[in-house]
Structure formats: structure tokens, C-alpha cells
Amino acid sequence: MRLTRKFAAVAVVTVAGVVLIQPAAFAGPVGSGWTEHSPAWNVQIQSKGVITSYPSSTTNASGPGGSYARAAGVQTFKLFNNGSNRVEVRVQDNYRTGQRQFEGEVKVTAGTDDESAMQIFGNDGDGATTLMIRSYAKNGGTLRGGGKDLISDIYGKWVHINVTHNATATGGGYSIYINGKLVHTANGPKGDHYFKYGVYGTLQTSGAEHQWRNVHFYRK
Fold it and tell me: Would you tell me how many other CB atoms lie within 10 Å of the CB of residue 219?
């Protein structure tokens, strides 16, 4: 999946009068030995317990309480009433073992509270997921995952996220990187895994919105 890779620049350098736009220093996979791949994916909108799937070619879709739009390399996921509680990309790359990495930039719109932004789905024990990164309203917008706050004061700002996952027959583990910095590592349960991202959860406020861009997937 290629959504205008690395041209989301954060540095502008002038060399001999020429302006060069450079990618963020933390763009790309963390660690070595990763190979980018492009798994199939679709958009899911859940309304009153019924999930409707749309192909990856979709640029606009909506349900009773949520919508999806894709333009200029940015995917926008919205909830605007309790008619929908899920507007997500479901990545079609199921795995029980092996190493996977998710990379992307997320921007949380002010007012969004207690909504999932990204998941490693799959858990053979209690619960459905291995990891869920959620956005909260506190402290100017906060991303929280793995039982801890990851970064705050994020409303209206692009935040770069990498999540690595080493899945094994007995469980494995994952690590979360924010803007290139390792912020959390934990063991994870075994399960049938795949990545999801968008906006997901019972609406707590008048509306919720997550935007994603520069999303990439890696494996080794």
C-alpha cells in the first residue's frame, strides 16, 4: 500500500540556492532486515453490528454514523454519531508466526476521545487484540497503548508510528516506536494476527476523526 511515501517532508534544506525537501529522519522501518510488502486491504464500516466491506480502490464510503475518504495520499476516518462504531482498514495479511512491522503517520482531530487508531488483531486468550493504540482527549490529545501513555499534545499534529511484532507459537512480543523513539515493549499473546487502522470505538463525543498517511508494511 503506497500513499505518497516519504514525500511527507519535515525538513527543508537549501543547498546552493536549491530547496531540497527531505523525508523525516525516522521514516521507513525500524531495525534491519525488513522487506516492504503490499498486502491486500479493504475498508470496513460497521453499522449496528453489520460490517460492510469496500475495496481498496474506494475513495469515499459512508454508513449511518461514519465515513471514509481518501485524497492526496491521506485517508480520513470519521465517526459522527452512534450509528457506526468502526471505520477501519483491514489488512489482508493473516499470520500466526513471523515478524511484521506497521509504519504510518496519524493525526487526531481535536475532541476525539477514547477511540482506537491502530491494532494488532488476534488473541487466543481473553480479548480480541494483541495491541490497541487509542487516542484520548487528555493533555491536548494523547496516544495510549500497551497500558501506558505514549505521547501527548498531539491534536492536529502528524505523529509517526512504527509497531514491530514478532509472533510465535507461544506468544512473542511487540514494540512501539513514536517519531523514531522506542516507547514501549511487551509480550503478546498467540493468535491469528493482522493489522487494522482507522477509527474504532463507541462514540464518546460529538465526533471522532483520525487521519492516516504514508502507511507501509514490512516483514522478515
Answer: 17
The SS3 of residue 169 is: coil
Who contacts 155 (Cβ-Cβ below 8 Å, separation ≥6)?
Answer: 108, 109, 110, 140, 141
pTM: 0.89
Please report, in tens digits, the pLDDT of each residue of the chain (220 residues total).
544 343 333 333 333 333 333 445 678 999 999 999 999 999 999 998 899 999 999 999 999 999 999 999 999 999 999 999 999 999 999 999 999 999 999 999 999 999 999 999 999 998 899 999 999 999 999 999 999 999 999 999 999 999 999 999 999 999 999 999 999 999 999 999 999 999 999 999 999 999 999 999 999 9
